[in-house]
Amino acid sequence: MSFLASVRASRATITIMIIIGMAWGALAGLVPDVKALTGVSDAGLGSAMMFSAAGSMTAMYFAPRYFIAMQRRALPVAGLFVVAAFLYPALAFNFATLSVALYFLGASMGMCDINTNMRISVIETTHKTGLMNLNHAMFSFGFGLTALAVGVARQAGYGPIEILPALALIALVILPLSVEKAADWSDPHEHDDGSAEPQTGGVFWKVVILTALVLFAGFVGENSTEAWSALHIERTLGAEAGHGSYGPGVLGIVMGVGRLFGQTAANRVGEIRLIMASAILGVFGALLIAMAWSANVVLIGVAIVAVGMAVVVPSANTVLGQRLRTRQVGFALSRAWMFGMTGFFLGPAIMGGVSEIANLRVAYGVMALIVALIIPAILALGRVPVRTKTF
Fold first, then answer.
1. What does the angle CA 154 – CA 158 – CA 159 come to, to the nearest 5 degrees?
2. Which of 205, 238, 332, 369 counts the highest number of beta carbons within 10 A?
3. Distance (Å, rounded) from C-alpha 218 to C-alpha 336?
4. Secondary structure letter of residue 384 according to DSSP
5. Is the dihedral of CA 183, 72, 336, 27 positive or negative?
6. DSSP class of 72
7. What does the DSSP assignment read for 239-254?
């Protein structure tokens, strides 16, 4: 399938991925301002982000039922809640209100994220081609370009109260592209060939748990860099206000480019080897950020982390899908992501706690250790036989 055909096939999911990326990019770029407006400490900011994890896990638990009940309305309705979530951080003024804002932001993102990934999995099976890396690339571009735009806006003197409503309006304008025609919608069970009994018991949960561990470590590496690189550049290295937003900006754009080439790389070397190589790069990049002596060196480290983390999450989704029956993938993804996605929020919280005790350099060293957990987890997952490979 050509690139343009792949884009047409996943137009709805690409739209939602861009919107989710914009929301996270806005938050990552505004972390120094949000921290200043709410008056929270590093540990307080990390603790508040845990409420986002709680909201996300709650939403992900119910995501498969929501997906089945809403069908082709699932993505645009969930996307509407994400548009509203853009505004939540601008309403926070202390730890309590920031925690509430991040809880509902996490719930909106979690519901939208897992439903989008379930829909991508169905479209992959329908068209017999890989689309995870393409869709996640669009998330990264939405994230990176938004973070860069936020940096420019912050340098011009604008803050969360002006920036977030403007971004929400842009997201609202493109949201209708997520609506699918009835003729394009297909139920996951329609593509289950029925050739074998579904995986159950130990094998099923082994796949889910190992995938969850890969996702967890991958999200720790990704979001810790997103959430704290701006503060690391501006506070640890003394860069001017606004320059820190280029950290998450570089991360998003480089990850986007990496994910565009991810499917080709996966076809050549296989998802397992690709994830292993990515984990090694992620560890190296995190250590470089920890030891950085200038803002430019941090950006180089961020770029290396981006290349490393680019394909971990989408490729892990594909690895899971290949080892389970089609009708099991939605439930398996929701459960793997319930744990794995906590890394998206727990990572920054860990970074905040370590930074409060020591500093951000030590925190990035801890991040490198967590990312290294991907290697034994993906090796174990690779030993589970492939069960369904439709592309």
1. 85
2. 332
3. 13
4. S
5. positive
6. G
7. PPTTGGGHHHHHHHHH
CATH number of the domain encompassing residue 130: 1.20.1250.20
320: containing domain: 3-178+189-382
3-class SS of residue 390: coil
Q: Is residue 159 part of a domain?
A: yes
How far apart (Å, rounded) are the C-alpha atoms in residues 253 and 145? Answer: 7
For tokens 């309705």, the residue is 77
**Nearest CA among 123, 118, 85, 115 for reference residue 103:** 85
Residue 389 falls within a domain, yes or no?
no
What predicted TM-score, i.e. pTM, was given to this entire model?
Answer: 0.77
Residue 298 Cα to chain centre, angstroms: 21
Amino acid at the residue 231:
L
The two tokens of residue 95 are 């730890």
Query: Is 122 exposed, middle or buried (CB count within 10 Å of its CB: 0-12, 13-18, 19+)?
Result: buried
- Residue whose tokens read 């309403």: 91
Identify whether 183 is part of a domain: no
Q: Mean pLDDT per segment of 10 residues, for the chain of length 391 residues?
A: 82 94 87 86 79 84 85 92 92 92 91 88 77 85 86 87 94 94 64 44 81 90 70 65 67 80 75 88 86 77 83 84 73 80 74 76 85 92 71 48
- Domain count of the chain? 1
Residue 79's closest CA among 66, 92, 61, 65?
66
